[in-house]
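User: My advisor, Dr. K., asked me to get a structural model of this assembly before our group meeting. I'm new to this, so sorry if the format is off. These are the inputs:
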Amino acid sequence: MRNRILTFVLLLVACGNLCAQQKKSSDLLPAEQEIMLKYGADRLGKRHDAAMERFRSHRLGAFIHWGLYAIPGGEWNGKVYNGAAEWLKSWANVPSEEWMKLMNQWNPQRFDATKWARMAKEMGVKYVKITTKHHEGFCLWPSKYTKYTVANTPYKKDILGELVKAYNKEGIDVHFYFSVMDWSHPDYRYDIKSEDDEIAFRRFLEFTDNQLKELASLYPTVKDFWFDGTWDESIKKNGWWTAHVEQMLKEMLPGVTINSRLRADDYGKRHFDSNGHLMGDYESGYERRLPNPVKDLKVTKWDWEACMTIPENQWGYHKDWSLSYVKNSVEVLERIVHAVSMGGNMVVNFGPQPDGDFRHEEKELAEAVGRWMKKNGECVYGCDYAGLEKQDWGYYTRNGNDIYMVVFNLPFSKWLTVKTPKELKPVEAVTLDGQKVEVVETTNNEYNVKVPEKIIGDPFVIKLKVEIVNGSVDKYKAALT
Ligand code: H79
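Assistant: The format is fine. Below is the predicted structure of the whole assembly, which you can bring to the meeting.
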């Protein structure tokens, strides 16, 4: 009998565990079941101040991953590693002192911040996220808290400072990527297992605070901090610190935006707190992947930003891009529009060469994206989720009463199906260069939109003007089944 009871109890525990695992982090608890948290979400719902509106309306950004890892470009002692180039130190088990000898080779003679800014401008990105410090610990600014900085290389100059100035001059916002995990710091801990660990990690957190305060005061035009390397137990056990960092930066830089990846709550829950509320200002979990446009519409309720690599998974410069599939410009554009169609931003990554120039594939891709954006950017900038049922031909985006149909897949029928909610009626359809497009009503709240005669090879956009109607009459008979 006792055995039976024990089995029953074990089953209950197992089931409880399973249910807990199945519960997704973003699922909300009913209000009455919410628990008290000291370090949970600071706010419910989206931010609506001017700085956040600006972040949101930009929609398209670029990522720059540049550090010592660009020098070996994925190769160590004659062996080429397929993994992400910025993780090479870890793949090849290189001790920090040895890795940091790469600093003697940091001399990017072709680096020209003005050219980088022009390239970003041409591509149509509204902001650039720069790796101030990646996991390796090398700082692109002359930090006074470590010797591992640009100041102690043959190049000497403050790369970050030059970039902030050049991008801002082009009207492009700068966001700072910052890895909390720092492989170069003796006090970093992956977990806290002893009092010594606790003392060391306290020192590490102070060092990190100092670096962040330094960044905020040296470069006060920075608009956003994007934290990475925050997944370790040591950080999850110090949720208080992640809340403190967000508060500290917001006090120093009014309006600054912070990604959800920084945060852990009282129980070590990340991104979304134990009550299911988003921490930080926008979700940053979509890395090299996007929410499903049919199943994941819940993301339209909060702000989010996705980031993507051009090859499968290379952020820093890797010398051999033939090791994985490399996306073409249409595939990149499709991901940009996909993100916007669900109310998110998209950040496309670049990994500059050690000489300070960009590889030709990246230059060509930036140009192609820029050409398309110049013509069609209206369906990206300032746009949001449209609230219409997804169709196979592509994605909808929306700006007020203008709905954009961004067509990536042409149907043989040459008709594009549109299904609208009851209260919404298309009144006019035009291409972005003003050609009128035929719209035929096929049944209640369903329309066919004609593919324009003159379409070229690129994905194209049809602007659908809509009006809000109250209580439409069902003209078509429903089937009696
Ligand atoms: O900077 C780029 C990447 O280097 C960084 N984020 C983007 C923007 C990144 N790398 N990995 N990750 C993010 C995900 C983390 C994976 C991990 Fe693991 C899983 C870390 C610890 C467990 C795999 C296994 C990598 C190390 C051990």
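One thing worth pointing out at the meeting: Residues 284 and 292 are 16 Å apart (CA to CA).

User: Perfect, thanks a lot.
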